């Protein structure tokens, strides 16, 4: 590298000396001419003016090239950098002495099959001998060894009879990051559309299940009510038969008693009511699940709607039952007759589902048995806001993790069991979409309580006064919890 630099400096010095020597010879020749001083002075003035114009043109060209955002390198046929603009220095994080005379191959990370060689092979059409531009994207390396994605165009250039190449490049890190963000957003959109489709499908299935469930429930209720009347008539008939058995033929009553024993009539009379009642309970549970699924999957509108928080929680508890019933006992402590508050129902569903599932997973991680695990869900009316508290007796949150709980992609779960997005999205929905507050209280080894405070009026986009009001409600909520 030092040899290349010295050679470049030597050539630059030779070019400068040669130019100066030519000007000195020309001036000496002018002075030797036997011409009037006026003509000689005019000629010298013309020479100075030409020199000033050349200097001005050179300076203008340098200013233009240095103002271009793309980096520009002039590279000779051997691959040595001979000239550059200021943007090239900035992009490559180099000084003039570091870049001058350096082999351009060092900028490319792909050393085995150098991008420069591939570019040059495409830049010069060997068969026709024509020269053209060529473009590519590759990974480049700055002089501090930091790598970055680069967009580069190589074009042939002929300077003073020597074949050279212009390398015009730019750092496309931001564009690549934007593309990655775009791909991520497109993926999230696809997932959202898929979930929306599943929601519509679930709603349709719920509707289809609801119809047969309805007549099954009605028929079971009819059978249960009808059995009561039949059993009373059967009991009366048996009592009458028993009272008048002496009036019957000798074998008739004994045959009848034997048939009753064979049919196990006493067992049937005891168990049929229990069986029909269990069936009714089961079909009622199916109906509750279907109704909860239907309401849970119902598409929400762009505007907030008046929402019954107790009902939303009840639906989510039913929907998430399979998540918590194997790990904990769940208790509800809902304040009756809560006012309806403006919410995006689908998003509120997502909040409570995330928190309940997280509570169940925290208990499962603690190693407690289903009999020991406890989840408590409580609603409280505070001023004009509603406080929802979801408590578990799981592992609790470690001190070093508490400040990162709501950060995107942070998770303490095993790979494949969590993306770290649940609480981040929950935090965003509560604060940004509903103007509410969310916080937690935790004790390592004893459990965690997440508190969600939802305002009774729409505070999204309201001035600081409303925010202060919400802060006041938060303080009231924390005071109530301590009490």
In terms of topology, how is this protein built?
Elements: H1 2-32, H2 37-67, E1 71-76, E2 81-84, H3 86-92, H4 96-99, H5 115-123, E3 134-141, E4 147-159, E5 162-171, H6 173-243, H7 250-263, H8 265-296, E6 305-307, H9 309-319, H10 321-324, E7 329-333, E8 341-343, H11 345-366, E9 374-382, E10 385-392, H12 399-402, H13 422-433, E11 437-443, E12 447-455, H14 464-482
Parallel strand pairs: 7-9
Antiparallel strand pairs: 1-2, 1-5, 3-4, 4-5, 6-8, 9-10, 10-12, 11-12
Query: Helical element count?
Result: 14
Task: State the separation between the terminal residues, measured CA to CA.
Answer: 75 Å
Strand order of the largest sheet: 2-1-5-4-3
Number of strand elements: 12
Helix content: 55-70%
User: Stretches where pLDDT falls below 50 for ≥5 residues?
Assistant: 1-18, 126-131, 415-420, 463-467
State which percent range the strand residues make up: 15-25%
Work out the radius of gyration: 43 Å
Taken in chain order, the helices and strands follow as: HHEEHHHEEEHHHEHHEEHEEHHEEH
Residue-averaged pLDDT, rounded?
75
Sketch the major β-sheet.
5 strands, antiparallel
Structural class: alpha+beta
Describe this structure in words.
The chain has 483 residues and is an alpha+beta fold. 56% of the residues lie in helices and 18% in strands. It is built from 14 helices and twelve strands.
């Amino acid at each position: 590298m030092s040899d290349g630099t010295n050679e470049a400096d030597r050539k630059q010095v030779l070019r400068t000396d040669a130019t100066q020597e030519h000007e000195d010879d020309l001036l000496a020749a002018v002075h030797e001419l036997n011409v009037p001083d006026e003509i000689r002075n005019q000629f010298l003035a013309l020479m100075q003016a030409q020199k000033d114009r050349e200097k001005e043109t050179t300076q203008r060209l340098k200013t233009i090239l240095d103002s271009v955002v793309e980096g520009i390198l002039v590279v000779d046929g051997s691959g040595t950098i001979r000239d550059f603009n200021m943007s090239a220095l900035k992009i490559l994080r180099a000084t003039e002495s570091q870049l001058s005379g350096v082999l351009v191959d060092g900028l490319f990370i792909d050393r085995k099959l150098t991008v420069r060689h591939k570019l040059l092979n495409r830049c010069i059409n060997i068969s026709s001998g024509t020269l053209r531009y060529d473009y590519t994207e590759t990974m480049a390396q700055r002089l501090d060894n930091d790598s970055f994605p680069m967009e580069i165009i190589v074009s042939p250039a002929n300077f003073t009879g020597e074949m050279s190449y212009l390398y015009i490049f730019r750092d496309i890190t931001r564009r690549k990051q934007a593309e990655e963000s775009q791909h991520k957003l497109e993926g999230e959109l696809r997932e959202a559309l898929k979930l929306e489709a599943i929601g519509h499908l679930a709603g349709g299935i719920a509707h289809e299940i609801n119809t047969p469930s309805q007549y099954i429930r009605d028929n079971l209720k009819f059978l249960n009510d009808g059995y009561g009347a039949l059993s009373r008539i059967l009991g009366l008939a048996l009592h009458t038969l028993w009272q008048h058995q002496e009036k019957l033929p000798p074998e008739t009553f004994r045959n009848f008693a034997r048939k009753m024993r064979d049919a196990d009539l006493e067992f049937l009379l005891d168990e049929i009511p229990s069986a029909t009642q269990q069936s009714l309970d089961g079909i009622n549970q199916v109906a509750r699940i279907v109704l909860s699924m239907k309401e849970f999957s119902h598409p929400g509108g762009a505007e907030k709607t008046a929402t019954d928080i107790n009902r939303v929680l009840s639906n989510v508890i039913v929907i998430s039952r399979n998540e918590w019933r194997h790990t904990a006992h769940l208790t509800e402590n809902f304040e009756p007759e809560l006012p309806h508050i403006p919410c995006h129902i689908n998003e509120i569903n997502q909040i409570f589902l995330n928190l309940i599932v997280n509570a169940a997973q925290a208990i499962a991680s603690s190693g407690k048995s289903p009999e020991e695990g406890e989840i408590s869900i409580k609603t409280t009316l505070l001023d004009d806001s509603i406080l929802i508290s979801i408590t578990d007796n799981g592992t609790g949150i470690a001190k070093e993790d508490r400040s990162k709980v709501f950060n995107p992609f942070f998770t303490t779960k095993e790979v494949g069991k969590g993306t770290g997005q649940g609480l981040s999205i929950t935090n965003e929905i509560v604060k940004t979409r509903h103007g509410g507050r969310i916080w937690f209280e935790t004790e390592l080894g004893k459990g965690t309580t997440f508190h969600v405070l939802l305002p009774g009026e729409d505070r999204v986009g309201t001035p600081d006064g409303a925010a202060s009001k919400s802060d006041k409600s938060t303080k009231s909520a924390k005071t109530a919890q301590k009490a």
